[in-house]
Write a structure and sequence with these properties.
Blueprint (H helix, E strand, L loop, with lengths): L1 H15 L1 E4 L1 H6 L7 E7 L2 H4 L3 E8 L8 E10 L2 E9 L23 E3 L5 E5 L5 E5 L6 E4 L2 E11 L3 E10 L5 E4 L5 E7 L2
Antiparallel strand pairs: 1-2, 1-13, 2-3, 3-4, 4-5, 5-6, 5-7, 7-8, 8-10, 9-10, 10-11, 11-12, 11-13
């Protein structure tokens, strides 16, 4: 069982790590989609005593000002791939680490705090695709324009594609407050680890 977990972990790592771009989607419908880059970079084992990643999302026109940065620790329970989500203190200091990977060596565990209600669970499908969503019962609250919203996040990826949808809903009314009105963001992997 340990060998199987190790093998499955390696496949997951190889599949998710790299640079993704939705340039094709943005070029086809520039009024609906901004050109965005997403990076997943493997971090040293010693950082969180396990497999972890740095992720960064930024608009293509502003790569040094990412709008989302996080560290994720990978765990496996049965057939579930769990991505714990860590907030980075003073994250701006690591801006650009997706493409300037030397910056990653300056992250240390004292700068990280676990986001308790922001754990993604992924399941591997028969066609080597990973499908994920926030863990049931997780209520990650995000404040937007003075309103508290809960996050609904859906992700699907394989070795060539990364498709995601994040939406925020009012915690009292359930009304959608933020997120894409045009469906999923569709990224192509343009660079491996």
């Amino acid at each position: 069982m340990k060998n199987t977990h190790s093998q499955e972990k390696s496949i997951f790592i190889k599949t998710i790590c790299g640079k993704y771009s939705n340039k094709v989607q943005a070029d086809e419908a520039p009024r609906l989609y901004a050109h965005i880059n997403i990076f997943f970079r493997l971090l040293p084992w010693s950082l969180l005593k396990g497999v972890s990643f740095y992720s960064e999302q930024s608009y293509n026109h502003s790569p040094w000002s990412p709008y989302r940065q996080a560290v994720h620790k990978l765990l496996i329970e049965g057939k579930v791939f769990i991505m714990q989500n860590y907030k980075i203190e003073n994250a701006y200091r690591f801006a650009g680490a997706g493409f300037e990977t030397e910056i990653l060596s300056t992250i240390n565990s004292s700068q990280l705090s676990l986001r308790e209600s922001c754990e993604m669970n992924f399941y591997k499908s028969k066609n080597n695709c990973y499908i994920g969503h926030l863990k049931k019962g997780c209520n990650h609250i995000i404040e937007r324009d003075g309103r508290k919203t809960y996050l609904v996040s859906k992700v699907k990826f394989d070795k060539h594609n990364f498709i995601s949808l994040d939406e925020g809903f009012d915690i009292e009314t359930g009304q959608k407050i933020w997120g894409s009105d045009n469906g999923y963001l569709k990224f192509k992997k343009i660079d491996d680890m």
